[in-house]
Amino acid sequence: MARQERARAAAGARCAGDVRDDRCVHLRTQRRVTMNPRIEYLLRAIVLAASGLMFYTKISDGTLAFYINQRFAWLSLVAVILYVALAMTMVYKASLHRRSERPLGESITFDVIPLQARNRRRLSTHRASWLALGLLVLPALLGFFTPARPLGASAIQNRGIGLTAPDRVGTVTQAQRAATGPKNILDWLREFSRAADLSAFEGKEADVIGFVYKDPRAKQDEFWVSRFAVSCCVADATALGLLVRTPKAEMLPVDSWVRVIGKFTMGEFAGERIPIIIAERVEPTPQPAQPYLYP
């Protein structure tokens, strides 16, 4: 160890007086492009801990449901545990590196490797370290500083709205589970998909909750009461809706949550005959704790 320190000191003294020496150029380059391993491990620990805290915050305040299907929420809890464990591992690795007396970022090596090849390798490692930290910190920053809100009318404009919701083979439908209570939008669309004749729904009462979406193809006295169905996460979300006819349609703000009570009648939208709700009551309602519907 003493011999290595003397070698470093001698190299530093030589470099101070001779900038033309290839070894000196190499040492100066290393001071610019390397990161102290201890500092790097601590930074990784901070980023990993922040990511775990972000997931825990989403779980505790209930906004996790804005991103994934509720049946996968336990995986987020597992992620919190893994992030904390990894952060502790980084702290432990940092503790193994004794605090250096050299300035931050300085690293001196004496391996016999061509100067240009060594510089390229060190520069690549340095960039990879910062890139890895950046990739870790970006989701945490987005999670903390981006307001959490569910998908709404603007997402429907990009994805379109579904008029059918077929049953998945081998599953118990939500309509079957909710046989004793009011059907939601997904339940009604599944009933429509299974029906041989949609006119059989003429006069049936509907009581649904959703947000207001106004399609430019709809009439002035019509709007869509809409929800998103999520199988796994918002990436596979499907917009569903029932067309509502009411004189109050123009006064309803887009994205506002409403409860619609009325009866079905056969109507037409975009050249297709579909059941339409003739609203008897349209009243504002708070956004549900679970804004999505789950197949």
Helical coverage, percent range: 40-55%
Q: How many domains, in number, for the residues?
A: 2
Tell me the series of helices and strands, N- to C-terminal.
Answer: HHHHHHHHEEEEEE
Radius of gyration: 31 Å
Q: How do the strands of the widest beta sheet line up side by side?
A: 1-2-3-5-4
Biggest sheet character: 5 strands, mixed, barrel
Kindly estimate the percentage of residues that lie in beta strands according to DSSP. Answer: 15-25%
Spans where pLDDT lies below 50 across 5 or more residues: 25-33, 104-119, 169-179
Count of β-strands: 6
Quickly give the structural class: alpha/beta
| Outline | elongated
Gap between N and C termini = 65 Å
Number of H/I helices? 8
Q: Could you tell me the mean pLDDT?
A: 76
How would you explain this protein's 3D organization?
The protein is of the alpha/beta class and 295 residues long. The protein folds into 2 domains: 2-145, no CATH class; 153-293, OB fold (Dihydrolipoamide Acetyltransferase, E2P), CATH 2.40.50.200. It has helices at residues 2-17, 22-33, 37-61, 73-96, 115-145, 153-159, 174-177, 185-194; strands at 205-213, 222-229, 238-245, 257-269, 272-284, 292-293. A 5-stranded mixed β-barrel has the order 1-2-3-5-4. Strand 4 (257-269) and strand 5 form a beta hairpin. The protein starts with a helix and ends with a strand. The chain crosses the membrane at residues 41-59, 71-92, 128-148. InterPro entries: DUF1980, DUF1980_C, DUF1980_N, UPF0703_membrane_permease. Keywords: Membrane, Transmembrane, Transmembrane helix.
